[in-house]
Amino acid sequence: MGSMDSMLDLVLGLPEQIVEAVVISERVNFGRPRSFDKLVVAGMGGSGISGDMVRCLFWGDNTMTVLSCRDYNIPAAVTSRTLFVAISYSGNTEETLTAFHQARRRNCRILAITSGGKLGRAAKRAGVPVITVPDGLPPRAAFGYLFVSLLKSLGKLGVCHSYEHDLAEAVGLMAECRSKWLRKARTVAGALLDQLPVVYSTSRLLDAVAERWRCQLNENAKVMCHTNVFPEHNHNEVVGMGSPDFLAKNTIVVGLIDRSTYGRTMLRLGYALDITRNGYAKFLKLKTEGKSSLARMFSLVMLGDLVSVELARLRGVDPMPVARIDELKRRMAKG
Fold first, then answer.
1. Which domains can be identified in the chain, with CATH numbers?
2. Catalytic choice (118, 184, 226, 329)
3. Is 329 a catalytic residue?
4. How far apart are alpha carbons 146 and 137 in whole angstroms?
5. Greater confidence, 335 or 274?
6. Is 226 a catalytic residue?
7. Could you report the per-residue pLDDT of 161-195, keeping only the tens digit for each?
8. Which part of the chain is the SIS domain (predicted)?
9. Which of 14, 39, 50, 86 could form a cystine bridge with 147, CB 3.0-4.6 A?
10. From the DSSP assignment, how many helices (H) and strands (E) are in the chain?
11. 315 φ/ψ sector (left φ>0, alpha ψ -120 to 50, else beta)
């Protein structure tokens, strides 16, 4: 089996990965639930997106403040009342390791999610609960393991409800629709070929989903991608759309739409597209499917992942390796 088919199988296997992640998280003893003033999730790249997804999921149904930490230094807001979660699939992400050690000095409650590595060893030495997920995957392809481990651990610690039914719905929806979405992804990828994808979120539920699209297009398809959010777009970016001139005929706008999208935001999207109609080549409207917020998020996550693999296929590039990231790590290791 080639790398193309391997990555495609990993994307299509997301529902099964979620089921396995639920089982894995059930085995971990997190200690007694307690109240926290905020949740901080530290992670980079394909590991860090899980924190952003939780932040977006909580936007409409949880009062917990959620901060994402994508840096070496943790926010000053991290205190002894904070729940700090360090996520590094490899366990060797230097920014996350640095943040983990800083969090320990703040005396906050800490949880680690990893496949092992330095983070796994450091957490065990410190007596920090560790959710150990299966290794051997590209971090971006372990999204189901990492996100669900985070979400289930938050449920056990009393931060949120269990999302048991929502996860079950998401699993069922993806299993039922993945073949249909693959066909749709091939159409979308065809439209994106040799174009600049500009992905807009129209609901706070989908902000992290748009970021997931960008990261997957970057790493799998090896293309640039720009993201922004509505209605903020109307207060700045609308002026610049289509400039420099070469962008106008080489930009595909992808709008991510959910039933939670505010009515006047949809009005703004329509007006903006009309006002800037000479600033892009084509507009693609993609709507979520499913009932629960979680299932709706996953519907566009899987579609975006499939689009990235299919665009890689059309471009004749291997979706698995990330040579430039590997070279950056090699150089950073030298000091």
1. 3-162 (3.40.50.10490), 178-315 (3.40.50.10490)
2. 329
3. yes
4. 12
5. 274
6. no
7. 999 999 999 999 999 999 999 999 999 999 999 99
8. 24-173
9. 50
10. 12, 9
11. alpha
